[in-house]
Amino acid sequence: MTAAHPAATTIMNMLTNASKQPVTADELLRFHAALAERGLEGQLGITYQQISAEAVVAAMKVTDSVIQPFGLLHGGAIAALVESVASVAGIVASGSAVAGLNNHTEFIRPATSGVVTATATVQHCGATTQSIAVHIVDEQQRLIATGHVRTMVLAPQVQ
């Protein structure tokens, strides 16, 4: 196993504190910078708008890099958005790193342009597993997809 990337420490510290108070605009900028260094979120252009104990909200612009050959937002990009916001919500809720056990994403309607926004809310936070619901809407607030992610709470890493 490789050592954690330095950005991981920045991200974990920020997210574990978010259970006490929402992440500020300056912290969001540092979070995005850390993700841009390493991570799928940076590659897909996922930007977090709110990180708090109540909800995690992130947006993704529909660009050429996230569409499939027929011009629709790729299902894999949507599933990655679901997993990303759910994982952040899980970390905030548990105060520990989490790993996805299951990602069930349902596609409701296609998106071909604009921005989609995902909102994750923790439905259950146990000592070892969590259940997180995700809703993705387009700019007209039409439902694009729903997701349910089950995560496993990992033991805190020794620094």
Keywords summarizing the entry:
159 residues, alpha+beta, Thiol Ester Dehydrase, Chain A, 4 helices, 6 strands, EC 3.1.2.-, Esterase
Short description:
With 159 residues, the protein is of the alpha+beta class. The chain has helices spanning 6-17, 25-37, 40-44, 75-94, and strands spanning 46-51, 56-61, 98-107, 115-125, 129-137, 143-153. It has a single domain (6-153), classed as Hotdog Thioesterase (Thiol Ester Dehydrase, Chain A, Roll), CATH 3.10.129.
Protein model, in words:
The protein is an alpha+beta fold and 159 residues long. It has one domain (6-153): Hotdog Thioesterase (Thiol Ester Dehydrase, Chain A), CATH 3.10.129.10. Helices cover 31% and strands 33% of the residues. The chain has helices at residues 6-17, 25-37, 40-44, 75-94; strands at residues 46-51, 56-61, 98-107, 115-125, 129-137, 143-153. It starts with 5 loop residues before the first helix and ends in a 6-residue tail after the last strand. The model has no long low-confidence stretch (mean pLDDT 87).
State the end-to-end CA separation: 16 Å
CATH fold-level topology: Thiol Ester Dehydrase, Chain A
Total domains, how many? 1
Estimated radius of gyration:
15 Å
Q: How many extended strands?
A: 6
The description of the largest β-sheet is: 6 strands, antiparallel
In helices, the fraction of residues equals 25-40%
How are the SSEs placed, and which strands pair?
Blueprint: H1 6-17, H2 25-37, H3 40-44, E1 46-51, E2 56-61, H4 75-94, E3 98-107, E4 115-125, E5 129-137, E6 143-153
